[in-house]
Design a protein that fits this description.
Organism: Gopherus evgoodei (Goodes thornscrub tortoise)
Helix content: 55-70%
InterPro entries: IL-34, IL-34_sf
GO molecular function: macrophage colony-stimulating factor receptor binding
Protein name: Interleukin-34
Distance between the termini: 37 Å
Radius of gyration: 18 Å
Order of helices and strands: HHEHHHHEH
Number of strands: 2
Number of helices: 7
Structural class: mainly alpha
Length: about 180
């Protein structure tokens, strides 16, 4: 191999990763635009009855403190992003399940679900072999609806507020 020579495959791999990251960041940007405070307030609070709550599993209340604790346990960023994606996809489905198609928030939730589906396509690595074991157990529990841990009544806006805070923690450095 010549000195200073970099194999073509290296460039293809780097360019492929950059392109995937750019697409992921565009989806995250679209989510940020959809999940502004004003829109969350309008669609998840003002258009719902006062003190309305949705029953979710304890694991579906993913807060920034959970991410910090998992990072302290050296859980990979891929695992954390897969967890965030899985949890919030299920949360959106639960919120959408209580809405009628003519509800003012229905289309908003459908748009968010679509963005999460596009993001899920970017995370084909979110399977048991590539995700930390303790995170995979939680993902599996959320996806299967195993309610062994119990239910919690949470306001829809609070669920999306947590979604935004965790999204910022996970993507602020890589998607400026």
């Amino acid at each position: 191999m010549q000195r200073g020579y970099v194999p073509f495959l290296y460039f293809v791999t780097v360019l492929g990763l950059e392109a995937a990251m750019q697409k992921e960041c565009r989806i995250i940007e679209a989510l940020q635009n959809k999940l502004t405070y004003r829109q969350r307030l309008q669609y998840m609070k003002h258009y719902f009855p006062i003190n309305y709550t949705v029953n979710v599993q304890f694991e579906e209340v993913l807060r920034a403190s959970n991410i910090t604790r998992l990072r302290d346990q050296n859980v990979s960023e891929l695992s954390l992003r897969c967890l965030w994606l899985s949890v919030n996809s299920q949360v959106l489905l639960k919120i959408g399940a209580v809405l009628l198609e003519k509800h003012l928030s229905w289309e908003y939730i459908q748009d968010l679900c679509l963005l999460f589906e596009h993001l899920a396509e970017e995370y084909e690595d979110c399977n048991q072999g590539n995700v930390d074991t303790n995170v995979w157990d939680v993902v599996e529990q959320v996806l299967t609806g195993d309610t062994g841990s119990g239910q919690k009544a949470v306001r829809p806006k609070a669920l999306l507020d947590n979604c935004v805070k965790v999204m910022w923690m996970l993507y602020s450095e890589s998607c400026e």
